[in-house]
Each structure stands twice: as structure tokens, then as C-alpha cells.
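Weekly structure sync - notes
Attendees: PM, LS, DV (DV joined late)
Agenda: review two folding runs queued last week.

Item 1: First target. Sequence and C-alpha cells pasted below for the record.
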Amino acid sequence: MNARPFAILGGTSLALLLGCSPAEPTVSCPDSDVVFEAESVGANVVFLLDRSGSMHLPISATETRWTATRAALFSMFEQLEYRVEADLTMFPGGDAPLTCCSVSDPNCGNCGPADLPGPEQRCSALTYDDAEVALFTPERVQLLKNQVSQSDGDNYWGTPLAPALDGAVRAVSHQAQAWQSAIVLLTDGKPTACDVDGNGSANDIQHAVDVVAEGAEEGILTYVVGVVDGEPAADAAHLSALAAAGDTARYEGCEASDDCAYSVRIDTFEKDVNAALQSIARDTTSCSFVVDQRAFADGDPYVAIAMVDDKVYLDRDSEHEEGWDYLASGTLRLYGESCEMFKTQPHARVQVALGCDSQMR
């Protein structure tokens, strides 16, 4: 197996072992005290799917935003079978679907104020905090497909983004597995229909950004996929801010162009949403590891990337741009080129060595 080595970097580093034999080589040094084997882990994933009325707007003669998103989501489900523990929450929730309009009239022009539900259920985080992840067996996948399909003909009111994210963060944080945790948000609108304080501030996107940032502090990643053109559409700046706060910015400097999220456009809808979900599927399952916590009890360990007889080193990077970090969730995660390299190597391994002299580099 051939692989391109990285440039050697100084500082604390992580051992990524690349070799055709799973048992060789071993990252170590003559004076190492112990070498810990890191185990690639799955992920606790909660899919957060927008089912507001605008999701039923057409994108072609035969497809709507909803049907195209559903198809891409189902394809992702099948890719993740047996690789993650997951559940799905749809928003808005808590209210019955509207009876004053149907999916053929997604803008609900004939609905008056008296026809619309109040915000009490829709705008409470408690409505969305009951997700319970389970292994993505074929039976589990079919169950969630059926759950989504039950909303095919329903028109729900509003886009309660902040409470839905708040509930999802709470649900993920309560999962028993010490795996990488993630939320995958799919939406096509700005926060609406949660004017619970009388002045509209409850719809401020900053509420959603704050919730996602709090989740990131606990090691919960939030991936964001959103429709950014057409009417109505999500605000690209809002989506980008959510992705950046959720520690899933797509590339360095994306904040400057509001491009940190996965953007979906009407004229390329199916292509965009499929590409986004396939990228997220790879990312959530490939670059997170469990390591014995003793490896980090006395500060940063000595770690290195190795291919056969060569050792290459990566710095620990708290900015999550290139290298590795040990997250509050208790998982070790690769970032940047090291993550991409790991995803392309079927026999890649990770080890952490203690007690090595820094001069060994």
C-alpha cells in the first residue's frame, strides 16, 4: 500500500498507523511506558428534519423540496446501516398539521390567525428532547423511513429552529454511549412562528447559534444543510453561523463568505443535498476514536503518524483545523488532512504512546 507522508511537524502529536498488516508497525520509542490502542468509534446521531409547509414547494414538475430531501436522507440511512446509533426528530412538532391548507398550498394563503396553533408546544425545547439513538439496523432504518413518510401529506406551521436544536442537543447529551455525538440539521427557512415574548426576539437566530455553541462545548457537532435560494429560504449567513458554532465549518475562513454550512440551491437541489449528506456520512463515522483516558491524565501524550517504518507527527490543534484534539466528550478526533488520510486508508490505526522523549522526533 502506498500513501503520501505528511510533513513532519513539531509539538504534541497523534499516532495514525498505516500499514497492510493490522499488527504492524507499532508507534513507540525505547523509553515508552505504555502504548494505548485507540478504537475507531461510531457516532450518536440525531437527524433534525424541517417539515414546515415550505418544504413542500416544488423544485421541478415532479419533485418538491420534501421529496428530494427525503430521498437523499433515505439513501444516507442505508449507507450508515450498522455504523451509527441514530434517531430522527422532525420540526415543527407538538402541534397538529394544519387543516386550513394542504401540501398543494404550502404557503397557506387561506389560513387566518384563528386557524394557526399557538406557540406553546411548537416553541418548547421539551417537545424535541425525546430522541433515543439505537443501532442503525435495517429494521431501525425502515422504522425511521416510515416515520418520515407519515408527514408526506401534512403541512405544519412555522420553523421553530432554536427550540428544535435545543431539544436535539439535550437528547444527544443524554445518550449512554461515549461516542462522537452529532446533530444533522436539514432546513429551508429562517426561524419563525415562535414570537412567544410578544416582540419577535424569540425568532432571533442568535438563540439557535448559542444552543449549538453550548452543544459544541460538550463535544456535540452540528452539521447544517439548508436551502439558500428561492422563497422562502434560509439565510446563508444564519446557516454558516450555525455550522461554525457547531464545530463543523467546511473549511478555514468560510465565515467571511457565509459558506460554512452545506448550501442547497433550487436548480441543483437533488445534487446538492445528496452531496452534503454523503459528506456528512463519511465525516461522522471516520475520524473519532476512544482512547483509554489514562493516556491523557497527565497532560498531552507523545503521539505520531506512522506508515510502515516511517513516523510522521501532528500537533494537537484546539482550533480543529489540522491535526487532532481530545474533546470534552472523551473522544479523540482527527481534523483536516489527517482526517482525510484516515478516511481513505482501510487499515489505518491510531495509537498513543506515553513516556517518549521529545527528542525522539
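Item 2: Second target, run right after the first with the same settings.
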Amino acid sequence: MLPRILVVDDDHYTRTLFKRLLGKSAELSLAADGAEARRLFAAGDFNLVLMDQRLPGENGIDLTREFRVQRPKVVTILMTGFADVRDAVAAVREGLFDYLTKPFDDLDALEAVIGKALELDAAYREIDGLRTRLATELCVPEAIGRSAAMERLLDQVRQVAGLDTTVLLEGESGTGKDVVARLLHAWSVRSAKPFLEVNCGGLPESLLESLLFGHEKGAFTGAAQASPGYFERAHGGNLFLDEIADMSPKLQSSLLHVLQSHQFTRIGSTQPRNTDFRLICATNRQLSGEVQAGRFREDLFYRINVVALRVPALRERQGDIILLAAHFLDFFNTKFGKSCGPFTAAAVHLLETSPWPGNVRQLKHCIERAVALHVGGPIDTAHLFAAGESVADTRFVAAPGGETALRYQDARADFERDFFRRLLDAAGGNISEAARLSGIPRQNLYVRIKRWGIVTD
């Protein structure tokens, strides 16, 4: 289905330009004044509104505020002349996605901004649909993502979820292996039975042993009553052992026995008990390397490495970043009783170009902090990182030999940002002089310096 775009501009040339530019890729509605725009907006569900700042008898910014009262998440781009740029910047801070300066000489840049705005609208709509499904159905976990990497993973999960076999989830920390484990449970024939999760790396050996096997009354100091363990409680369902590589050699041996015999014995007891659960395990290490290093039992490795699924890092699914950010924004707004957002164009750019070494977990914490510390309204770049935290610090990646390497797109972004700062300094902050010195058309120069948040007063 083509996206629906409302163009509000009293200039016939501008309306014709958008019709020629977007007529084949979008369903356009054109309005020459506020009255016609109100009628069209009330009658249609638009993915994007392109609003001229100066309309006959009224201000486009005021009309945009009126539209946002009716639909708070409507994505809007303001079109403005050079004389009105300061008002446009203020409007972006109020919640507009971005602004464009007329005339439009760089049509590629114009289409790029429109494309990003439509991506954000699609993310908001997908998250709204997810919330509706979760409200009307059972609380089945959803893996958020539409990138090729996530689609491949979800296809694999669907294939193996119904098979009663052990699954090993591999991937970096923070990629969401626990979410995939819950999907395997939800889509399995055991979904009506328990799903239990244990982090093997976060517990001492004795406590983990008691948690898994259970114990009898008096089995050790403080055991005032008998307690079933996870092997017992997971009967009929799925047991998820996260960070299994951290399990001690003793417990590795015990786990192997349970998997082979389907029996276990509570601590302090001599009576074997039967159990039937499907094991799902996860690790952020290469288990084959752990076996070679003598830290993980080879026989246990072959027992759990029946079906191995790799959960991709966030840098491998860049197309999912804004969708995930929109989901976390919605989640934490609800949790904290706030109304933060939407993301500005600069924030979207920063989110998409940051490497996220901590993967989805880091992105989630970033949005949580932004919502927690923000009083409300649009989320810009300044809200995304803690005071004193440098975005650049997170963009260097390990290279062979232990060196550090900066990704090409980040190096290019650093050069462009520094170039325009120096250019404006040389021109004394005068945009016209900066355009003359650089040979860049003034309107294009505005777009570029605005992108880096260095518009001068």
C-alpha cells in the first residue's frame, strides 16, 4: 500500500513539484489553504504531512499544532523560507519531525528527509499494532524487527519451535537471546506449561545447584522446608539456561546426567525423580572454543548443540533501530506516565548511525534514560546520552591486531561536522558568506548545518 501524504501549500509550483516527485510512490492529497487542509486531514489517515509555514490568513505552525491535538503522533515536515528559519527550528523543538527551506534545489536531500519521516511513521504504527495485539491476545512475546537478519532468525525459530529438541542460542550480550527463548516457548507444543529462566552466570555454584535440583528439609543450614527445583517445576515445559558457559564443571556433569536420564535427585534426598522438559540454552561465547580450552565439557557441548541459532547483533540489523527505539519510547512513556517524543530528524540520524556495541540492551537503556530525565516533548540528540558521554567514544570498533578502527560513515560524518563548524567560524556566523566561501547553495548549506545541530543565531 502506498503511503498517504498531505501537502499543504498555497504555491501552485510547490504542489506541482511534489506531485511530480512523489506521484508514483505515494498517494498525494493537495491543499492550497487551511480550510481545505482541515477537511482532508479529518477525512484521511495520513502517514506524513508536508506543511507550508505561511498560508493565506494563517500560520502553518499553528495548523500543525491543531493537527497534533487530533493525532499526537502525526509526522509533519514544515516547509519554510529563509526568513522564517528560526521559527521553524522552534517548531521542530515542539514536535515537528523536521523542516525544509524553499526553494528546493537538492531534490535528493528532499526525498531522503521524506523517506526518513515515512520510516518513523511506519515504526509508530507497527508499535501501535503490537500493543493492540498484546492487549487482545495472550501475552505472547514479540521479536521486533523487519530486517533481513531478523526475518531469517524468525523463520528458523518457527521451524524449530514445534520440534521437541534442545536449542542453543548464540550471540553477543544484549542481542535479545532471552526474547528468542520466550518465542521458542510460545510457539512450541509446550506453551501451556511452565517457562523457567535461570542465569547461570549470576549465581554461585551452590545456589545454582539448589535452584536447579531443589532440596529437602534440613538438607543444609537454612533449609527450613523442602523446595522443588527448576528441573522439577519445568516438567512439561521449557527450561532456559542463560550464559550456560559460566556453569561450573561439577554442574555441567550433573546437567548432562539429567539430560541423558531425564532424572534428578533433590539435594538431601536419595530418591530419583523423573522430569520432562525441553532445554533452551544461550551463550555469548564460542562454546567450541571453551571446549578446546578445557572450560566446557565436550560431551555436554554435543548434547546441547543439536539446533544452534545465532541472534544477530544490532549493527547487523540497522533497519530495525528506529522500530526498536519507537517501541522502547512507547513502553517507557507508559511505564513512567509520560508523553515524550516524537524523535527529531537529528535524533533519528544519531540513533541510526551509532554502532550500539551493547546491542538492543544498550539502545533500550538509552531510551529509558531519555524518557526518565525528559519532562516531555520531542526527543533530540541532547536527550539520548548522559552528560559527559561522548557519542564518538562508542563508534570505535576493535580491528585485527587489537587496534581501533572508525567506521567509514562515522569518519565521513566527523569530517562534515567539523568542516561546517570551521566554515561558519571563518564566515563569522554569516550563512550567506559561508555559502559564498564554500560554493554550496545557501539553502543546501542550511540543510547540512541543521543536520548537525549547528545552526547559528
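Discussion on item 2: The chain has four domains: 4-133, 148-314, 317-394, 401-451.
Action: LS to circulate a short write-up before next sync.
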